[in-house]
Design brief:
globular, 151 residues, alpha+beta
Length: 151
């Protein structure tokens, strides 16, 4: 498959996460990722997009942007939100906030697992603030062809 650069913009609403998840799953499958790896990729995208919608976007009209790059070796996805400008609300990316989330993460807590899941299942995980005052989360999944897998 040839290199591809795809840009998607969705309203900041959970209603749009499932179609994005399906699109990226189909893309990953067509790129040659295994069925298990496709499921991992979809789970990571679900978690990152959910965080962008719930914590990072203050206005549904501004939305969330996804930049997707693929080539014969990898699938790279950048999810960008615009940040929350609600008064008194913590910015969810601060080091203190991330440390707090990580410290409180436990099997009995319903939330707080998305970042851990994304870090664990992706080959590369990066998160940083962006110029809009929001968060950019970049994940990369390497496509290992059978010849590239060493015994």
């Amino acid at each position: 498959m040839a290199n591809a650069d795809i840009k998607l913009k969705i309203p900041s609403s959970v209603l749009y996460i499932d179609p994005v998840r399906a699109f990226i799953g189909n893309l990953a499958k067509n790129l040659g990722f295994s069925r298990k790896r496709v499921a991992d990729i979809q789970l990571v995208i679900d978690e990152i997009c959910s965080n962008a919608v719930h914590h990072g976007s203050s206005d549904t009209t501004v939305g969330v942007t996804l930049q997707i790059r693929s080539d014969v070796h990898s699938l790279e996805i950048l999810v960008r939100d615009t940040g929350s400008r609600r008064t008194g609300q913590k910015h969810w990316l601060t080091h203190e906030r991330l440390s707090e989330i990580e410290a409180n993460r436990s099997p009995s807590n319903e939330g707080g697992h998305g970042i851990f899941i994304a870090k664990s299942l992706s080959d590369t995980y990066e998160m940083q603030t962006n110029a809009a005052g929001g968060t950019d989360v970049r994940v990369v999944f390497q496509l290992l062809k059978p010849a590239a897998i060493k015994p």
